[in-house]
Every structure is written in structure tokens, then in C-alpha cells.
Amino acid sequence: MFRFESPIYLYLLALIPLLVLIRFVAMRRRKKMLRRFGDMELLRQLMPDVSRLRPVVKFTLMLTALALLIIMLARPQMGTKISQEKRNGIETMIALDISNSMLAEDVAPSRLMKSKMLVENLVDNFTNDQLGLIVFAGNAFIQLPITSDYVSAKMFLQNISPSLIATQGTNISEAIRIAVNGFSQQEDVGRAIIVITDGEDHEGGAVEMAREAKKKGMRVFVLGVGSPKGSPIPTGDGGYLTDNTGSTVMSALNEQMCMQIAEAGGGSYIHVDNTNAAQEKLNGELARLQKGEIQTTLYSEYDEQFQAFGILALLLLIIEICILESKNPLLKNIKLFNRKSRFQA
Fold first, then answer.
1. Contact 145/82 with Cβ under 8 angstroms?
2. Partners of 218 in the beta sheet?
3. Please, which residues bridge with residue 299 across strands?
4. Alpha-carbon torsion 143, 146, 151, 154, what sign?
5. How many Cα neighbours within 13 Å face the side chain of 76?
6. DSSP class per residue in 225-267
7. 286: Cβ contacts below 8 Å, ≥ 6 apart
8. What is the pLDDT along the chain (345 residues), one digit of tens a residue?
9. Cα separation of 164 and 236, whole Å?
10. What is the pTM of this model?
11. Distance of alpha carbon 113 from its chain centroid, rounded?
């Protein structure tokens, strides 16, 4: 498969026909001016060293080199194939709470940033496993379908922020429901749903949904981020979120609710603090899941092809420099650039 890394540069190819038009107009004007001096055949006899074809060849070489340089800037790349591979691993759907309360800083640097760091470290430990990413607040949606593409997972993870969902709240039940439906149809594979949240403003139904997930052979783990004592929510302008009375809103981790969801889902509750204990415990829990054969789609990497275009452009420029516009007296018997053309002056 052929593609361009920076296709915007291809718009510069519009310069080619523009330059051809400018060249055509200039040649017409030149021919018109020469006719003022006399008969064209007589003028050719008076200028025996002037070649009609050499300037055209030089101009064509320059235009071709320019086109190749533009294509080189667009970074053409060539892929090879898409292959299917079977691996032995587990499937994991990660549901990440991105409500405003996750901006609280009782866990450094913030609840949300700590959660993203935890997920990134989790992805680094994956080898043959598949994962998907769900974000939720008042609503929930799939940010990344189940995949083995860990590079894309990290890329999507970096772009996650509370601005992705306008509706506030903590709709864990919806996140679990989407996670249940997000797994593949392969059998005999261990499946885990990891809910990362502070549990605040819980909208209900999560325990029942976790129980349904367990019945379908999935285990629900809940990672509670933050402090049960509560913490103010930064607004980004140096202040903190306040309620209708002007009092600072304190966001506290709802550990009891998180434990209930984890117990109903057959998993475990893990408290996330400023240590690495939560990461180690989660890795241990996932290691116990049954590994099964997973069908994975692998996309071959694209190889850069701009070098070939650059070398060819350089060769054309060297040839263009070596060709003189006037005839070389030492090569006057060679008629390569002395063909008649009714389009030239």
C-alpha cells in the first residue's frame, strides 16, 4: 500500500502547470519580439549557435526535478501487507472516569494523570494481550476498540481529557455495559473489565451491571483513585470549583461503592495512591486470568521512500546544469538538440 505522510505538500504540484503556462507566455512574447527584427529563417541563420530544443529540455528537467522534490517533501511511504496472527493472551477493557472530579490533586499530579500513567504502565506490560479503552462521565463511549496496537492505545490515552464528555456525572453502569459488548467473540479467553474512577456522583445500576458481566465470564476490577477525605477540584485558572453558595466543592473517593461493584463483578477493589502498590497488585490479578488463543490483525510498518525521489531529482538537476542553452562548438556535428519543431522560435 502506498501513502504520503504529509500529503499537504502535494498541493504544491499545482505550481507545475502554472510554471508551464508562464513559460508558454514568455516564449510567445519572445517569438513576437524576434519577428520585429525580420524573417525568422534569416534570424536562425544569423544565430547558428542558438538551440531551439535545449532550453525546452532544460525547462522540462527543472520541472520534473521540482515535482520530485515536492513528492519527497510529502514523504511517500510503502507498506507491504496486513497479516493475521494467533497469540496466547487475555482481553482487557479499560473504562476511565474523565469527570471533572478526576482533576483533583489528592493523588499527584492529579487523579486523571495518575490514572493515565497507570494505564500506560499496564500497556507496557502487555505482550500478547488485547485491550480496549472506554471513557465515561455522565455518558460513556469507546475511545479505542479492542486491539493489539499498543502504540495507538498510548496515543489515544494521551489525548484523553474531561472536555471529551460535556455531561458530568459518573455513569459506571453504562461504562461496564459498553465494555461487556466491546470484547471479541473468541472463546476460552480470560476477560477483564478495569474501571478507574473516584466513584463520585455515582448514578446507580453499576452493581447490577457488574453482576451481569460476571455471569458472562468477565471479571470486573475497580481502581479507586483519590482520598476518602476529599480534595478541591482545580478550575484551571488558579481557583477551585465552587457550588451555588460559593463554597469550595470537595471531591471524595467513594470506596464503599467501588468495593461493592468489584465484589459483584467477581474481581477486586484496588486503591490507587501515590505509590506503585496499585500497579503491582493489578498486574498480579491480571496474570491469574486464563490466557487463550487470540486472533490478531497485524499491519506492516510503512517504509520511507523519499530517498529515491530525492536521488532522482538530484540526478535531473545535474543533467540540467550540464546541458548548455547554446550549441557546443565541439559537439556541433551531434544533432540531438537540433530537431525542428514548429512550436519553437
1. no
2. 191
3. 82
4. positive
5. 16
6. ES-TT-EE-B-SSS-B-B-TTSPBPEE---HHHHHHHHHHTEE
7. 90, 92, 192
8. 566 667 777 888 888 999 999 988 988 887 787 677 666 666 666 666 666 777 888 889 999 999 999 988 888 877 655 555 666 789 999 999 999 999 999 999 999 999 999 999 999 989 889 999 999 999 999 999 998 888 889 999 988 999 998 888 889 999 999 999 999 888 888 999 999 999 875 678 999 999 999 999 999 999 999 999 999 999 888 899 998 888 999 999 999 999 999 999 999 999 999 899 999 999 999 988 878 766 655 555 566 778 888 899 999 999 988 887 666 555 555 555 454 444 444
9. 16
10. 0.63
11. 20
Identity of the residue numbered 200: E
What does the alpha-carbon distance between residue 112 and residue 173 come to, in Å, rounded to a whole number?
A: 20
Residue 217, class by beta-carbon neighbours within 10 Å (0-12 exposed, 13-18 middle, 19+ buried)?
A: middle
Q: Three cell numbers at 300?
A: 506492516
Q: Find, among 271, 225, 30, the residue nearest to 115 by Cα.
A: 225
Q: What angle do CA 28, 32, 37 make, to 5 degrees?
A: 150
- The residue with cell 523519499 is 306
Cell of 344: 519553437
Distance (Å, whole) CA 100 – CA 80: 44
Q: Which residues pair with 108 in a beta bridge?
A: none
Q: Which residues of 65-84 are buried (b: 16+ CB within 10 A; e: fewer)?
A: bbbbbbbbbbbbbeeeeeee
| Residue closest to 139 by CA, chosen among 187, 178, 174, 106 | 174
C-alpha cell at 297: 490483525
Q: Which amino acid is at 121?
A: N
Torsion angles phi and psi, residue 139, rounded to 5: -120, 175
Q: How far apart are CA 263 and CA 172, in angstroms?
A: 15
- DSSP 8-state secondary structure symbol assigned to residue 5: S
